[in-house]
Amino acid sequence: MTEILDGKLISQQIQEELFLEIDRIKEQGGKIPHLAAILVGNDGASETYVAAKVKACEKVGFKSTLLRLPETTTEQELLAKVNKLNTNPEIDGYIVQLPLPKHINENKIIEAIAPQKDVDGFHPQNVGRMALNLPTYLPATPYGIIQLLERYAIDTTGKHCVVIGRSHIVGSPMSILMARNAFPGNCTVTLCHSRTANLKEFTQKADILIVALGKPEFITADMVKEGVVIIDVGITRIPSATTKSGFKLAGDVHYDSVAPKASFITPVPGGVGPMTIASLLVNTLKASRKEIYK
Ligand code: NAP
User: Same domain for 41 and 98?
Assistant: First the structure.
């Protein structure tokens, strides 16, 4: 029997827990967590993602501030905004929505974010702390996957976890988290990417397959074994004749053929996506409580 890993449901549960927590904080006269987001330019997908994050903040009772900057913003101007947020005691954590316009060096901006306020977990200090298994802000998408595995009590110890994709925001941190001495974790991890030879030989041996390459329906039934746990991170807009908008969202896994072989699987949409937002909120609460950096 295949069980759906329902990210939408778990994300709602987490948000309800946060809502109750905010009620408690209000009653006690404590500080309401405050998340800020910087959005540079008018990229459609980025606008949608930021709007969803701001809306989620409002829903659970957090404060949120959206700083919109024009496409023409210089690196210096953006650095100045980042420094302002670093020193603003009102703001607990913030994100700089990626990608940034080509003329801005993303690494330079990420390194300028105060690690204590880096709720996206992208600053090298926080990445290093993650690698060392020290308290840190885990990047939102991998953290969301970890919480999903945890809440469904998926047995990960001693399993062979194959991760496809080595990006800094998903694949690479995911491989670190699944290998660490923790639950979920304690897997034997294989990290695959575009230069991996004979990818299918690895995917067929996976007990847990985490797919983050951005190629719609890339993983097919012949590439997986019976009973595999499938985490599909991919989100790609593909044309559709059956939807009003003319497109639909596709994951990296060919769901209809793979799901019958899987023990657990995340749908797209409604799997990893909603968990990403919930994780950002959890990180913001941690920032406001100074749980990571005391
Ligand atoms: P990315 O930066 O483009 O990285 C893609 C990775 O896949 C790279 O490491 C690349 O290898 C590897 N790859 C590409 N083609 C491959 C192939 N044929 N075989 C094996 N590996 C291959 O992508 P990303 O930012 O990690 O995102 C991946 C997907 O997840 C996208 O669809 C994105 O929209 C989605 N996403 C979803 C969420 C969410 O909240 N659900 C969050 C973030 C991203 P090389 O390193 O060798 O190039």
Answer: yes
The set of residues, in sequence order, having a beta carbon less than 8 Å from that of 9 and lying 6+ positions away, is: none
CATH number for position 201: 3.40.50.720
Per-residue pLDDT tens over the stretch 27-73: 999 999 999 999 999 998 899 999 999 999 999 999 999 999 999 99
- Residue nearest (by alpha carbon) to ligand 1 atom 2: 167
* 258, 215: one domain: yes
Ligand 1 probe mutation, 145, 233, 268, most atoms within 8 A of CB: 233
User: Domain total for the chain?
Assistant: 2
Written as one string, the DSSP assignment of 117-184 is: GBTT--SHHHHHHHHTT-S----HHHHHHHHHHHHTT---TT-EEEEE---TTTHHHHHHHHHSSSSS
**Ligand 1 mutation target, pool 138, 191, 193, most atoms within 8 A of CB:** 193
Q: What is the pLDDT of residues 208-231, one digit of tens each?
A: 999 999 999 999 999 999 999 999
34 located within any domain: yes
Instruction: Tell me: do 186 and 244 sit in the same domain.
Output: yes
- Domain membership of residue 215 as a residue range: 140-273
The residue nearest atom 22 of ligand 1, judged by CA position, is: 194
Q: Are residues 88 and 158 in the same domain?
A: no
